[in-house]
Amino acid sequence: MSAxxxxxxxxxxxxxxxTRKPRNFHDLPAANRRAExxxxxxxDRVSLMLDVxxxxxxxxxxxxxxxxxxxxxxxxxTEAVTGKSVEEARGLLGAFLxxxxxxxxxxxxxxxxxxxxxxxAGVREFPMRVKCATLAWRxxxxxxxxxxxxxxxx
Length: 154
Description:
21% strand; 4-stranded mixed sheet
């Protein structure tokens, strides 16, 4: 087996682990930023909650339902942004969207290391799955903008 095949298997295992045991899957009463995401094409729904204090995301959580990619992406998002500044989270958001959807960067800035989030790079080859992987991230974008917002991926 090739090294790229081994890496692909590792990424699949990582996504399956986060699907079966999603991290930070609970209500977050202390949240002061929230956003709802809905993908009408497949029915995925996510409610993303952030507790932001002094420009730092103290805690992130989500609730909702969806396919394996959608749930794993939301789970890994909450792990990735917890403890980050709002600006760092925006950088991560831009890098993730660029990697998975081929979106132009949201803003010029330093290169961001995606780490485990690189597991989602392969969805770019499956346009219908891109919306699953990016749903929670679009909710993050709305939540970071402030207020309680709803986003749709159509």
